[in-house]
Amino acid sequence: MHAFIDYIQSYLSSKQTPGAAGNLFWATVYILLVFGGLSVAVIAMNWLERKILAHMQVRLGPMRVGPHGLLQPIADAIKLLLKEDIIPSEADKFVFWIAPFIVVLAAFTVFVVVPFGPQHAITDMNIGILFMLGVSSLSVLGIVTAGWASNSHYPLIGALRSSAQMVSYEVAMGLAVVSVIMMTSLETGTGTLSMIDIVRSQQTQQEWFIFKFFPLGLVGFFIFAIAMVAETNRAPFDLPEAESELTAGFHTEYSGFRWSLFFLAEYSAMIAVSSIAVTLWLGGWLRPFPNALNGPTWDLVFSLFPGITFLLFAAICFYNTARMPKHPLFRIQTMGLAGFGAVLGLIGLVLLIPKVSVRVGDIYWFVAKVAAFMYLYIWYRGTFPRYRFDQLMKVGWKVLLPTGLALLILTAVVAMRTELWAQMTGALRP
Amino acid sequence: MIPTGAIPAGANPPVATTFFFYLLAATMIIGGILVITRKNAVHSALALITTLLAQAALYLMLYAPFVAGVQIILYAGGIMVLFLFVIMLINMERSVKERQFNKQWLVGIVAAAALGGLFIAVYTTTTKGKTLFPEGRLLYGETDNTQKIAGLLFDLHTGQYMFAFEIASLLLLVAIIGAVVMAKKRI
Amino acid sequence: MDFMLHITTLHYLVLGAALFLLGVIGVLTRRNVVIVLMSIELILNAVNLNLVAFSRYWQGIHGPQALHGQVFAIFVITDAAAEAAVGLGILIAFFRNKETVNVDEVNLLKW
What we know:
Chain B is mainly α. Chain B is about 65% helix and about 0% strand. Chain C has a single domain, classed as Helix Hairpins (Orthogonal Bundle). At the B-C interface, helix 1, helix 2, helix 3, helix 5 and helix 6 of B face helix 1, helix 2, helix 3 and helix 4 of C.
């Protein structure tokens, strides 16, 4: 028993990821935390997307279930779980059954290497980014088999579109990623594929890679940002599930629990690619200006951010509580919203404690950057009209791919020039 | 003849190597049997994907993480998607109902059995009490596998496979053009 | 029993040989071209497994720089990609002309 407690405590002092420390207990805890947090994030995204889209279209969105529809995703989840699970009689039963699980497994496994902080990752592989791209590309297998196993026309067309789209955009995505990997080799001489080391090299180079070799880093980021929307089959590139053309694409025949697995996979894949973008270009867990604005004062200021964010949410809740209709029918809803605000405020107060804010600071900045991407996704969906399939292919192969190749060559040339210049002047390394 | 290196700092000894080896090996063998016995090509493809992923895990156990990553991204994510795509493009309904094995299947099995016998003979050969392939224990891994492979492929001083790498890219170019010429109706 | 419990290079070689045999049986006996191509992939993978296992063994003797087996495995994967692309291209052309995917029906030199 004593040894077990020592085993648990020994990790806390070792500034490493549980995978690197080889600590099975903490690895399990981290896995449960990350996957649980992911599921909560997907549920929250469901509500946020409906609300934000509604407000963009000057509607109210879900308002009935809970105050401001806050309990709507839970009601949806219960509905989906209780719904009858239909398997078409002509479907290939086994493949139809296993396809959603392939998609969910691929979307969740990716999070093994996502670095929420220097020690807040399940593990750190030295092929981190390769692993992420590879495993997230496995989800296309699930989509293709789902479309094929349904034995129906719309799903099959959706699956073929989806595989063609994902395979072609993966190329552009890979080129953009390689340009970043090239940038990691500056100053140290050896590049890296590890997610944590990519962020560390942004810290040592004192620059987020989006600003590196302006405008090369920015171009790479834009290529990735376009490709990742296509990769996750979201608007404006949501042709595989375009309602007006294919009813629902590859998951037309799915219902109930299996359909909700596709939903879960789609949103966690969105979070996964956003975390790749944040790690590679936006400095991962680094707070803004970690090198320029350092020192105890600035550290204190930036450590207040997590707490203040939650207090802000709490304030919004209380403001809306005050605006609730005074009718007695709304009493429970008003109390619920006030209680929710109180919980958020309490979390905010806890996060203001210095010992806590030091530990969660990294996670806060990472999640905040990913949340910005999630908002962008919703914004795209509310703004852009859907592409035609030939236009989509044209953008992928005739615009993004040549740009990516040019970017790769230019990055190599500029990086080489910088290195040579540094060697000649002896400014950086002997 | 048991090379045992020192464990580098920061590297963990693998957990339950024996168990995972046999689990993955069983997955691979069952997957392989399913590939060559299923009627439906999609089922075969799914079995092959299982085999490939289990093999990627074995690469990780052999401390070849880069090869494992390439295996997942290229084989499972690239080549197998191509296979599935083609299976769906060509209508396979007829071939599911047909005879699955060709007429010389018996000859094929006999030839394969002969090859298997050869393998067994080679692996059990002992000279002076030692097998032909020494049963070396595997070492614990180091962490810069990817960088070392890159060194062998690209580095000016240590890159002895640079020329082969260029030839491989030429091969891929030829393959792309060949595939387009073959598959397109009118060029 | 000790020899079953400690996983050595030989275990990987035997696994590779078994996969190779499965691939050979698939190539020699199946009629469906797609499955023949998949069996070829099995064979290439068996080779790769051997190469990586040998690379591991070689590292034990010549130090961690000796990664030649892994480099070879990467070349084999490249080759497999090229082979799959061309093979499936041929398959599509073949299917378009003869409406079949069986190898033993390709018995004309010119169509």
